[in-house]
Design brief:
The chain is of the alpha+beta class. It contains two helices and eleven strands. β9 and β10 form a beta hairpin. The chain starts with a helix and ends with a strand.
Length: 164
């Protein structure tokens, strides 16, 4: 005969212990699986989502390809290149309110999103925009093309003079 048959109280305690062990094991497994799943989801969703924008330095053509008084809108780079006489300038077309792309015209810039209006220099004329449009440094690349550096903001009315 076994011990359990002789001592029913001891058999009851053993049964309770095995139930407790079972519940403890199941609880540990549930928590372990939950923690592993949460860790996996964190790894998946915390991976950086990189969006590549246009390069900081942009070649925008040779100076002689611009006629005096003209401007070229480059939507993929979000800039306008303007020629006045023998001087060249680059103005951002990113609205300073919420980053929409403004539409350029001969009389200024207008934001289609929230109605900000800028004059030809990029100064705010109306709407919610808090500041003027940025001007970027224009230089002459070694191959003779104009190059706009969008990492170098310059004062308005800063031009590159090139004898064309």
């Amino acid at each position: 005969m076994g011990d359990h048959e002789l001592n029913p109280e001891r058999a009851k305690k053993t049964e309770e212990r095995s139930r407790r062990n079972f519940i403890a094991i199941i609880t540990a497994v549930v928590f372990g699986v939950t923690a592993a799943a949460m860790g996996l989801f964190n790894l998946i969703f915390m991976r950086p989502r990189v969006t590549y924008g246009s390069p900081a330095k942009v070649r925008v053509g040779r100076p002689d390809s611009y006629s005096p008084g003209s401007q070229l809108e480059l939507p993929e780079n979000r800039i306008v290149v303007r020629r006045q006489g023998d001087k060249f300038a680059a103005i951002s077309t990113v609205c300073t309110h919420l980053g929409c792309t403004v539409n350029a015209s001969d009389i200024g810039f207008a934001c289609p999103c929230h109605g900000s209006v800028y004059d030809v220099r990029g100064d705010v004329m109306g709407g919610p925009a808090p500041k003027s449009l940025s001007w970027f440094r224009v230089s002459l690349a070694p191959n003779g093309e104009l190059e706009v550096d969008k990492n170098q903001v310059v004062d308005p009315d800063t031009y590159l003079e090139v004898k064309v």
